[in-house]
Amino acid sequence: MQAIGFETSLPIADERSLFAFEAAMPTIAAHEVLVKIAAIAVNPIDIKVRNFGAPPAGETRILGWDAAGVITEVGKDVSGFQVGDEVYYAGVVNRAGCNAEYQAVDARIIAKKPHSLDFAQAAALPLTSMTAYEGLFDRLQVNVSSNMRNRVLLVIGGSGGVGSQIIQLAKQLSDLTVVATASRPESQAWCQELGADVVIDHRNNLLEEWQKTGLPAPSWVFSTQHTDDYAEQLAALMAPQGKLVMIDEPENLKLTWFKAKSISLNWESMFTRGMFVTADIQRQHEILTEVAALIDAGKIKTTLNKVISPINVANLKQAHSDIESGKSIGKIVLQGW
After folding, report:
1. pTM score > 0.85 for this model?
2. Which residue, of 25, 49, 179, 254, is most buried by count of CB atoms within 10 Å of its CB?
């Protein structure tokens, strides 16, 4: 089968940073399905793995953790899916990704794609939707009864792929007032379009920006980027006994900043359940099924912003370059081999 991969971590402009090659057709385990890939999305994790996750010498690694396609084979222990089903999913980071014609994937972390979306629109959803959903409802537990009076959520990085889904899911599935950060006029408008109640500029001091909103201190903060830059300000800003969830990897986070207020620190990685085959791995299927229902009901929308066709080396490099620029809004999808 056709695939795109890399052997060595190189700048995206380098000829060998990504290249096409002929890969062996995947074989599936009893609990897996084989999917013929129709569309893929590119995420910051692709850039991170390309830069820091080179395979052992002599091996080629296939990136890609957002896909939509059609099931062509079903393992003997799989229920709820059959050949011909149109599905969407993110996969797991420690296995071959979706930048290939076919992919083997655990049936417990996939779902039937929204009926109202085409493959490109659906491929933009899984990784960001699950990250946002798990972060909000499993880590921050915003809908669990608590003593938090201030039903206010701050989203750091509201216009990115994850931020875009946080805003929508929080507005549809909770009673939270959602404040998002964005710096450029177009990214601020994007956040407002998705339902953010207030948008503030993260280039400025967050405490000063917050005072302008007139809102009480946020009980929950979902940080999607640059947590190092904002951590001390967040500790000062947040309500006592609040909760902070992060998806990045801050290197200089001073935990004692959060002690006085007993603020809980949480990390969210949507790969955890799939990588470690947790007891609740099936929850990812349930989350994606709920997201599909919300999409088909018109309550949330795909955050697809750019489609490139076909799936080839040149177009995939362009997508990586766009993500690396830090200026992309929404999701970039490639479709069709």
Report:
1. yes
2. 179
